[in-house]
Amino acid sequence: MTLTPQNTIEEAFKGLERVFQSENTANVDAVVQFELTGAGGVEFFATLRNQAMKLEIGHAPSSKVKMSMPAGDFLAMLEGTLSTTDAFTSGKLKVGGNLIYAMKLATVFKFGAE
Amino acid sequence: MLKQYRLDDRLVDALDLKVLLISNGAVVPDTTFQKFASQRRLTAPTNLMACNCVILPGGVAAHLTANEDSPFRIGVAENGRPALEYNGEFVTEVEFPAYTEFYKQSTSTGRSFGLYGVLEGQGILAFHYLWPCQFARSGEICAFCFQGLADVAGMNLPSPTPREAGEMVAWGLRDGSVREVQLTGGSRFSPSGECPQVAAVLRGIDEIAGIENIPGEIYAYLSAPALPEAVDEVFEAGIDRVAYDLNLWDVQLHAEVCPGHARHIGRERQLRALEYVAGKYGPNKACSAFVVGLEPLESLIEGAEYLGRRGIVPLLSVWMPGVDPILGQAHPPDIEYYRQARQAFAKIYDRYQLTPPGITAGAHVSMCRDVYDHLQEMLPPSENISQNFTRLEGRQA
Fold it and tell me: Does the CB of A1 have a partner CB in chain B at under 8 Å?
């Protein structure tokens, strides 16, 4: 399947809803900007507040954490075919903003099985 | 003498700056990274596994977490050197550690060195996560622990084999980027704790790199084993000293912050294990870190004094706040808390002739070596009586 921004959004939103761990967000009040690059590249952001997540297409006016990654790799991470460990350690996933917050987000989005 | 710097209306020294940097992180602009990454040891701040540090004046190494919300920023001074800024004002020139290609290396299994260990300060190779933490995986993570978040997140970071650990030490010794070695693994439930695994790693390091070739010390942070003598295997394998971290002295607060340790190990076992090491191997051979900033100063100092009197070295690790408040605190205490803590620890080191580990700038998030290196400045003049203080360095400690 050739990735387009449209199907990246559909798969990413569906996947993020699946891996979101609301029980780990008690003290989280943040906007996370996702910048997916390459084929199917698209920008969207997640607002995490009151233990809920709202996903919107586009660029947030401000964000606590920015995550940048090729779109295909991001979807693979959501599906569990690319392990979080490999995504972090290979440098495919780049993180900006407040990295103290970003470490916490690793527990908020429980990506695919290792 | 530690120089004073102005942050708005406050005067601070390099140790204060270290605490503030650990607590707040700093903005590390891409321009700073681009300018220095090819000349000094500086990992891309976009890498969540990056372990960076700056060397503050006086040789004080401070952990550097990239944080765009921080009032601190690492910029470039007019003379082209790295500079620490606060709210847009120049504070002082800083330095990054010497350049190394350590993170470009792989072990014989093809895994990157950076997966297994990080370089801290000016020459510490720290294996922070030799194996997963069973306490974290069972939902009883220590509230301040960032390493354990990987387990909570379900990540599966690989563990080095003893041979791989040896290869990394050997490379670092040849390169000059490694002068001392720290071993830490996640806590394990077995009665002998992590001792057999640490002993195996030590044997791997000795076989490949030769422990005697490490100019500084090799030390391990372990969970206290149920059988105190389990640690004998670790000393036989060549460790210089071991630490069983109490983290907080107040037992009730400790149980809240470190539920796994409190439930599965407990204070009595920790102290028994520490006193076993101090009794069998002598003063300075057992250490125990406190996470400074979480409990009242009085109980922290009481705990440090208790250990010091028994020849056990109390260590000061600075609490790095995360997202979740701990004991209702989301922010670290005022800098005055840390000043009083470091002065109290200086008195204890002086009074009981204790030497914290390290021959270089010390670890990023620990203040004990800084306190020791500036001991006479830490002590009030009336108590500065150690005319005959004998400094112990490296392997002799």
Answer: no
